Amino acid sequence: MSGEVLSQSEIDALLSALSTGEMDADELKKEQSEKKVKVYDFKRALRFSKDQIRSLTRIHENFARLLTTFFSAQLRTYVQISVASADQIPYEEFIRSIPKMTILNVIEVPPLDGRILMEVNPNIAYAMMDRLMGGRGTSINKVDNLTEIETKIMSATFERAFENLREAWSTIADIDPLLADFEVNPQFLQMVSPNETVVVISLNTTIGETSGMINICIPHVVLEPIIPKLSVHYWMQTDKKDREPEVIARLERNIHKAEVPITCELGISDIAIQDFLSLDIGDVIELNQAIDQPLTIKVGNIPKFIGQPGKLNKKMAIQILDTVKGGDEDDE
Predict the structure, then answer these.
(1) Is residue 32 within 8 Å of 2, Cβ to Cβ?
(2) Tens of pLDDT along 244-283?
(3) Which of 162, 251, 267, 317 stands 20 to 30 A from 134 (CA)?
(4) How many whole angstroms separate alpha carbon 181 and alpha carbon 200?
């Protein structure tokens, strides 16, 4: 029996059938105990777990935010891009789901194998081009007869946008996105076999008053080397042993860049407040340091070295003679 909730009338009918002998309780139990068979479609092989799909969704949510900022600056109009869905389907099903004439950007992502496909709805693409040409961002769908200039403008616009893909993927792979091909007819584009599983991330896109979809198709062959990095365990784990040398090296670099004051103390003297208040030009203060004694050199107010004064290139200088014992200790 299924797990659906029965109404009161259905419950009464079931009890009546059991009491009159129309239905055997033993047969009912036997039917429940039989092993259920789940239908599996080998043409729609699920090669990614829900956990990995969620990780890809998070990555492309960041990509959508970066694209929103990029296109807002380029087009100087209202732009809003967000992730609508993320599914794994056969490549053939994806090709059938997109328009017969559309904007297709084929992206190579070295060092990963394979290529990524970015499909942009023609309404969105033409709205972008109209804004770039100084228009209001209106859309005219005539993708079947793109001129050479229109093709160049569109391909250059999306090629600059791929830099955001590099940043969005930086957490799982260091890729170098390159525009490999620009096509308008999906029937002429055969990236992988029809039954190959692909992940399709659909982005809701609004530019001015025009709305449409941007679909990103990622074949399994592209993601295969980095699948372990898509799990929650990878994102949450903190391997301190691996990170410790990097942290120490960063601290050392920052310490080496730090500036510290170095002072040379000629001597000290104690005088009364009355004498201090009566000091005038030409007065001499006697120090407790003899002229033939070495001077104390302080680093950040801590005695570190002893040295002797002199000149270097007509400038006053101090030559270090020795280190101060106990100078490493920070007396607080």
Answers:
(1) no
(2) 677 788 888 888 888 888 888 888 888 889 888 888 898 8
(3) 162
(4) 19
